[in-house]
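Lab notebook: predicted structure, single chain.

Context: the supervisor wants predicted structures on file for every construct in the current expression panel, including those that have not yet been purified. This is the next one on the list. No modifications to the sequence; it matches the entry in the shared construct table.
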Amino acid sequence: MFHSIKMNTIIIFAAALFSCKNDFDLPLYPTYEWTNPLCDTTLKVVWQKIISKDSSYGAARFFSENGHYIYKYVSDYDKEVKAGFFEFDGNNIHELWEIRPDVPNGKWVFYGFPSFSDFLLLKNKFIYSDGRTLYSYTYQGDLIWENKFAGVENKGNVNSFLSGFGNKVYISSRSGGSVHRRYLFEVDIDTGKERLLYTELEDNNFIGLFDPPVLYMHENDTIATFQIRKYSQIDSHNRADMVAFNISKKEIMWRVDSLDRYTMGSANPILIENNKLYYAGAFDIYCLDPFTGKLIWRQSFDDY
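Prediction complete. Output recorded below exactly as produced.
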């Protein structure tokens, strides 16, 4: 009995001593206390429009650029897959056009629904990916170009999620086969031509794509910072890493592995504001120096 208790004590002590640590072992801010929401009861409906009758599983996004305000919706994945685009202002709303992806035998219906999950409005162009091809349209719905990433130099299918900066679009890809790699591409929005920026092997059976990067400038260099949310095929372990890649110099500026305290990471985009990088993890918000990756503070939203 004594031997069992002693061994358990040793194991607990060893686990505490050798547990995985990173550079983020700073004192936690106190758990955030939520305030009562303030409701504005003076709001009035200016206009409303029934977009779709089958919208319980739909998705919607709002875009704004150069005085254009665009609303996008996607119909249910178990119905006919389509996306509609409407322009609106404070007085009215009108339909611009809609997309109905090619679903030859129905097997892509489930995957077709989230294929519109991210859509860029950039330099008077609509740009989106269906997970196999990247498309660019005019405001009127005319196709400008398309880029079929699937299978190009064995780089696999592209991600449906995009980010944009200037006249460039950024999208990731993952290759299959015996050797798995992740890729980050830069695409010219005028021509649709891609340029490979960064690639890395998937190590230790951790699979996952690069998340869409956030772009910012540092001493005349363009920096792309992105999260890598990974999932282990062996023990179902998660990991969230973050990389800041200097596009101008073609080198990594900084990298932090196992960033999130809960290891899962978050699909929320990274925010750069006033020379600070804000990142939302599973239960924390992190503030980092965007030029060094050093943690400035971490705010917890639970009791740990």
